[in-house]
Write a structure and sequence with these properties.
alpha+beta
Length: about 120
Amino acid sequence: MVATRSSLPVTRESVTHKFAIARHEGYLTIGLYPDGRPGEIFIKMAKEGSTISGMCQAFCRAFSLALQFGLSVEEAVVRFKGMRFEPLGITSNPDIPEAQSIVDYVARYLELHYGRIRR
């Protein structure tokens, strides 16, 4: 079985969401396929050049490629939701009042807005 990459169109719709976790502010941008599925993510942290910012960029590149090679949002949520590391704590989002990490927050945001997980 050979995985093939499904790149997004050159011009695509996106959603940008401002968030804060324990006073660390950032912006989550989700690039969408024409059918509304997420195909890429970007995180811009307020402290540019920080370790957090660099790790977020690395996570986003890997996550985006995984989505483009067929990883579903549901599978991503299963793998990334609940990861715990700094920064963690209270968020600015009433739908996600606390996050265990930025990765946890992104997974939970995607689950709320793009997931189809049946409980």
